[in-house]
Write a structure and sequence with these properties.
Distance between the termini: 11 Å
CATH topology of the largest domain: Chitinase A, domain 3
Radius of gyration: 18 Å
Number of strands: 9
Structural class: mainly beta
Number of domains: 2
Order of helices and strands: EEEHEEHEEEE
Shape: elongated
CATH class of the largest domain: Alpha Beta
């Protein structure tokens, strides 16, 4: 039976949840994820847990705070004008509210290249024209449960 190697191409179901059992990601019951390890689709810590698992393995890992996605970085919280947020949204949607998660096309390098970033709206200023966006991973600094079912190792 094939087992996961550092450069394996995998199809799997996985679930990432916080200590309260709230899912950040859950592919069980839906379309499985397919990717090559080492390409950045999962954090290096999660990828390391997959190495050595056999095809058809179904397991769960309970990780301490910070182990899966590192520590929260205060510099990844930014105030951004509502207008800029609305222009940068991947898909137009309702007016952003505290707690919303959105994908924004923003410059990610000094050459002005735009990349797609995910942000959580943490706060809205009193006037409503600026949003405090958190670009940290939602599970940064959080104990995390990682459940995985390896469907195929190619």
């Amino acid at each position: 039976m094939p087992c996961v190697q550092p450069d394996s191409y995998l199809t799997l179901h996985y679930r990432l949840s916080d200590p309260g059992g709230v899912d950040a990601v859950n592919t069980f019951g839906g379309t499985p994820a397919t990717f090559t390890l080492g390409q950045g689709q999962l954090s290096p810590a999660l990828e390391a847990l997959l190495i050595g698992l056999d095809e058809d393995a179904h397991t769960r890992f309970d990780l301490p705070a910070g182990a899966a996605f590192g520590a929260r970085i205060p510099g990844l919280l930014r105030w951004v004008s509502r207008g800029e947020v609305e222009r940068a949204r991947e898909y137009p949607g309702p007016v952003a509210q505290v707690g919303d998660v959105m994908r924004l096309r923003l410059p990610t390098s000094t050459d002005g290249e735009a990349g797609l970033l995910t942000a959580l709206v943490r706060e809205i200023d009193e006037v409503g024209d600026a949003l405090l966006l958190d670009f940290n991973h939602p599970l940064a600094d959080c104990p995390t449960t990682f459940e995985v079912k390896i469907l195929a190792v190619l």
